[in-house]
Amino acid sequence: MHHSARAARRPTTTGRRSSVRAARRLAAVVPLMCALAALTSCSKQEEALTTPCGLVIDGSGSGAAKGGFDAEAKLKDSLIGFLDDQKCGTLDYAPITRSSRSSTCREDQVDLDPPHGATTDQKTQRANARQAAAGAALDELACARKDGGSDVWGALARIGEAVPSGGPVPKLLVVSDFDQADPEFVLSRKDISTKARRAGVIDSLVKARGLPGIKGMDVFPVGLGMQFRANPSKADDFEAFWTEAIEGRAEAHVDNEYKR
Q1: What does each of the 260 residues of the chain score in pLDDT, given as a tens digit?
Q2: Nearest Cα to Cα of residue 183 among 63, 100, 104
Q3: How many CB atoms lie within 10 A of CB 248?
Q4: Where is this region: Disordered (predicted)?
Q5: How far is C-alpha 75 from the geometric centre of its chain's CA atoms?
Q6: Strand partners for 253
Q7: N or C end of the chain: smaller count of CB under 10 Å?
């Protein structure tokens, strides 16, 4: 009986082999698990893009003038940088035409931070979304050029209605020389040489059209007053007019970061 008890306590050959195989499997699996963990940590998700952004694009004849304001060139030069700088999460569009608010030129909002999974390459996904937004911007410009005219005030009203509100401050890129010229209001025919006269002209514009709903938004003009490059005093009066209209009346903020 004593001999049999000792034999029972002794591990079998089959048991020893199973233990060795299990140890080897564990030794192989652990490095793989570590590698997967490292890969997961490398695919860290980017910070969400939440800024609502808008693009106003000038389809008037002055926006295609040779040697002057070139809306398409300005658009291509500024849009992608603007989207990156302002961390835009969405982009809405508004055309400048002879009647901007009622224009049939309409591009859908572009989501610049599309839904993604844990392993999504967000940098590539976002870059593709920005390129799609740039393509839609060119389509909007092509359509606006068919209408002609230059109702800048109406376009500001339209983009104010389009961009989402109630969250981060919306950022608006306005690619235009701001030469307001529609069937009812032609800025070049007005005297804006003094602050008092500018105020009177703004009064008449607001009385006829109301205020665009852009209160609190940041407006980034591109090309503002380029038609007056050879006449600095007129350029100053023109820029002052729009700053006083947008900031003083519409209560938005003008930022010249992309004006060049």
Answers
A1: 444 444 444 445 445 445 545 444 444 444 444 444 444 434 567 889 999 999 999 998 765 555 568 999 999 999 999 999 999 999 999 999 999 999 999 999 999 999 988 888 999 999 999 999 999 999 999 999 998 889 999 999 999 999 999 999 999 999 999 999 988 899 999 999 999 999 999 999 999 999 999 999 999 999 999 888 788 899 999 999 999 999 999 999 999 999 87
A2: 100
A3: 12
A4: 1-20, 102-127
A5: 12
A6: 218
A7: N
- Structural element, H or E, at residue 185: strand 185-186
List % helix, strand, coil for the chain (3-state, nearest 5).
50, 15, 35
Give φ, ψ of 119 to 5 degrees. -105, 10
Residue 181 backbone dihedrals phi, psi, to 5 degrees: -155, 90
Distance CA 59, CA 150 (A): 7
